[in-house]
Amino acid sequence: MQPYELTLAAAADAIEARRLSPVELADSVLERIEQVEPRLRAYVTVDAEGARRAARRAENDIAAGRHRGPLHGIPMGLKDLIDVAGATTSASSRVRSGHRAQTDSTVAARLSAAGAVLLGKTHTHEFAYGLTTPQTHNAWDPGRVAGGSSGGSAVAVAAGAATFALGTDTGGSIRVPAALNGVVGLKPTYGLVPRHGVTSLSWSLDHVGPITRTTEDAALVLAALAGHDPRDPASLTAPPAHYRPGPDTDLTGLRIGVPRTYYFDHVDPEVAAAVRSAIDRLQALGARLVDVEIPMTRYIQATQWGLMVPEATAYHESSLRTVPELYQADVRILLEAGELMSAGDYLRAQRSRTLMRQEWARLLREVDLIAAPTVPMTAVPAGQETVTWADGTVEGVSDAYVRLSAPANITGLPSLSVPVGHDTAGLPIGMQLVGPPLGESLLLRVGHAGEQTRSAGHLAARAAPC
């Protein structure tokens, strides 16, 4: 096994035990980037020399007894919405051409303090306003979409071109590309991870979180990210939590809600079968399965778009009026559509969100978490705009990908996507776990238990045929 193939936890253990140096790990990952980047285009920019300097500093610090923890010396990618002092934050848009951040975002500063090694900035769908990230190619089949908007981050992790990465999630933008590329994606509770210094899409829906190869890795990154920051008005003052799952896979007494409605409607049969099989494995570990009705399903899409579209348009108001030609057509159309929405529409979406939060809170008193597909189908061919379901219903690809992830953004509940298999074309399938506010430790424990019931192939993302 090459160093770039290691999980974060395995690499951290090897570095702490002096079996692997941060320089060796960084060199291996940078070589992997050179190998796969021409085909995958996960990165906007790669700072190889900066990464090597940071790796040497980490090596020297560790040798001097100044080991900072499990992220020390670990190579990472940051979605190109996340400010790093002195570096460009382009949001994959010509609108941001030449923009350089003056200071670090909160999450970049925290990862730097933990000793992580920045490789570069990963591609996003322009301003995170889309679910495909068209400039980046899927790690398993470069002819298919990467998912979005954190497509670059997910592809980099899946291909071994980063040991972990950060993404943002407004309607599924961490979990969708994680599912389509066979890696783990965690959208934390709204406000748990501060967003100061992160370019916004929709302030009341935006989240920042990790994309990793395992749930244990996600826990290690989350521990470094979580914590109050007064510069983010939504930032929570949450009690300290232990996120890293232990070795115990016993789920006796846990109540897992299995949706009768919504989450298995208009879902590819292979996806549904893989997710149900994964749920059955959780049952075999002692969990009790409970059939549940998902509340207010007819309002989910309208509420998601009713919140996101006007908030995004408000953020881009100035540049949309002065340099509209610099936006890609798909994003510009969405931003212009937001100008047509009334204040009444936005207030009705906010009211719907309040009611939806109340109903989900009631549901999560009946069960401990929900298990369901992350996305309704695996990665579609690049350029495909619609999907036709067995009953003849035609749905836009982006609408399909956001459909199952949006409820956790609307409610602010934590949601974890974990790989649970592949379809007959060899493309990854993801299952998401949705839990109560600040229920990340529970989701990670259950996701980790599920990983242990599969063969070592659950880390197949390391060998993505990219």
From TrEMBL:
Instruction: List each copy of the Amidase domain by range.
Output: 25-444
EC annotation? 6.3.5.6, 6.3.5.7
Keyword terms, alphabetized? Ligase
- Primary enzyme class: ligase
Q: Which organism is it from?
A: Streptomyces africanus
Classification via Pfam families: Amidase (PF01425)
Provide the GO MF annotations for this entry. asparaginyl-tRNA synthase (glutamine-hydrolyzing) activity; glutaminyl-tRNA synthase (glutamine-hydrolyzing) activity
- What name goes with this protein? Aspartyl-tRNA(Asn)/glutamyl-tRNA(Gln) amidotransferase subunit A
Sorted alphabetically, which InterPro entries does this protein's record hold? Amidase (IPR000120), Amidase_CS (IPR020556), Amidase_dom (IPR023631), AS_sf (IPR036928)
